[in-house]
Write a structure and sequence with these properties.
Low-confidence stretches of chain A: none
Largest sheet of chain A: 5 strands, mixed
Largest interface: A-B, 18 and 23 residues
Oligomer: heterodimer
Radius of gyration of chain B: 23 Å
Number of domains of chain B: 2
Helix content of chain B: 10-25%
Largest sheet of chain B: 5 strands, parallel
Number of strands of chain A: 5
Order of helices and strands of chain A: EEHEHEE
Structural class of chain B: alpha/beta
Chain lengths: 106, 338
């Protein structure tokens, strides 16, 4: 099963296994990782599952959709590495991906 | 003080359908919502997104679903208290006193919380301590555009609200600055074109790929400091700041009402969706129980069952009889069918 590392804003790291086909957001929610709210439940409508993707992984991700870019306007302190974790689905290619969580969601 | 059979908190799809379920039982309801219109998340977050899992509606949108629900509850002539948030509730014998931030007060045997993920509140710029400017010259909406006459106004955002006000205020303000975190705008293309034309004519100043870094000033914001991707910094002298970063959802005062909560949701039983307090119900996304699914259709079911218990509490002396809408003349009368 692919592994995902989530790093909380305070530095706490969580290395968890996430089922293929689940989103990075769902992986965090299922493993009770604090820092991802996902208010809208994953329909790319709220920007409260905002993450920063580790530099080594940015190029391996699928392109952002216009909807995701639009929603990122609402996220708190976006950077070039900002993504919405409900729009990134885990597969073998992303095994080992590292993502950091922002100070807060929205 | 308004006396009513039920106060519904939240005018999303489940709140609206609760009006219907209460209505066919002969109960009236007042609905309170913090947004300026009915529809909740369906209207605010995804009016155009297709929904495929409403029974017997192969496809609808958040907007059309809301419109149809409003049509369905029309016979009950429900009063909506919009732009208001319920702030406090207190017990009075078997009833509840419900008070909003606008000082509307209700007395009711039933409170039905259909609040989704909470009430919508403006998202604020990520700068510490800016609340102190909010009573002076930092705004998240425009209530009176006259106050911006002859001012240097700084507007943040890239959606319709931001660009509509750039275009509008450019007519009366001394200067308008527009700041957005990227080159693309979410606003309607027509408005984007208007804004670009204003920029080309030198009537507004546009800064893209910039984000707010700091607001400085003693009591009012005097200077806005913005930073771009390359860490370049600009300082703008301003009289007012308008920040349009959309809305976020917060559970808000509900956490203070003594209800059993589980991770931002309210624990209910599945018999009548009552909480740990008698006469307070929770339905839709905001409630939780073993097996709960956050689906609109689940909320509709929850509303129907909660309404039965509301009837018993609102009309303790009347006998409750279950009736189908197909055949009950009482229900037909309530729906205005002759």
């Amino acid at each position: 099963m692919p592994k995902v590392t989530y790093i909380e804003f305070n530095g706490t790291e969580h290395l968890v296994e996430v089922d293929k086909g689940l989103s990075i957001m769902e992986g965090a929610v299922q493993n009770n990782i604090p820092g991802i709210d996902a208010d809208c439940g994953g329909s790319c409508a709220c920007a409260t599952c905002h993450i920063y993707v580790d530099d080594d992984w940015i190029d391996k991700l699928p392109e952002q959709s216009d909807a995701e870019k639009d929603m990122l306007d609402f996220a708190f302190e976006t950077k070039a590495s900002s993504r919405l974790s409900c729009q990134i689905f885990v597969d073998e290619n992303l095994n080992g991906i590292v993502v950091s969580l922002p100070e807060k969601q929205g | 003080m308004i006396k009513t059979d039920a106060v519904i908190i939240g005018a999303g799809p489940v709140g609206l359908f609760t009006v219907f379920e209460l209505g066919i039982l002969g109960l009236n309801a007042h609905v309170v919502d913090n947004l300026d219109k009915a529809g909740g998340q369906c209207i605010e977050l995804y009016p155009d997104k297709p929904i495929y899992d409403i029974p017997a509606l192969p496809i609808c949108t958040g907007e059309s679903l809301t419109k149809n629900l409003l049509e369905q509850i029309k016979p009950f002539k429900t009063t909506f208290h919009l732009n208001q948030r319920v702030d406090s509730i207190t017990k009075k014998d078997k009833h509840w006193i419900v008070e909003t931030n606008d000082k509307t007060v209700f007395e009711t045997p039933n409170i039905i919380i259909a609040g989704g993920v909470g009430s919508f509140e403006p998202r604020k710029p990520p700068i510490k301590g800016i609340e102190r400017f909010e009573q002076y010259n930092l705004f998240y909406s425009v209530k009176n555009k006259k106050i911006f006459d002859n001012q240097n106004v700084c507007i943040f955002g890239g959606g319709d609200s931001a660009l509509d006000w750039v275009v509008e205020l450019s007519k009366t303000a001394k200067k308008v600055f527009l700041i957005h975190r990227r080159d693309e705008f979410r606003a309607a293309q027509h408005t984007v074109n208007q804004m670009m034309k204003l920029k080309d004519e030198g009537r507004i100043e546009l800064y893209t790929n910039y984000q707010p870094k700091d607001f400085t000033g003693v009591s009012k914001i005097e200077k806005v400091i913005i930073e771009n991707d390359k860490k370049e910094i600009k300082e703008l002298k301003v009289d007012s700041v308008l920040a349009f970063f959309g809305l976020k959802m917060e559970l808000g005062p509900i956490v203070n009402w003594g209800l059993n909560l589980d991770n931002k949701t309210i624990v209910v039983n599945t018999e009548n969706f009552q909480t740990n307090e008698e006469g307070i119900f929770a339905v839709g996304d905001i409630c939780t129980y073993p097996g709960k699914l956050k689906l609109i259709l689940s909320g509709f079911h929850e509303a129907a069952l909660a309404a039965q218990e509301c009837f018993k509490r609102a009309k303790p002396d009347e006998k409750y009889v279950f009736r189908f809408t197909t055949s009950s003349s009482d229900i037909h009368k309530r729906l205005g069918i002759k």
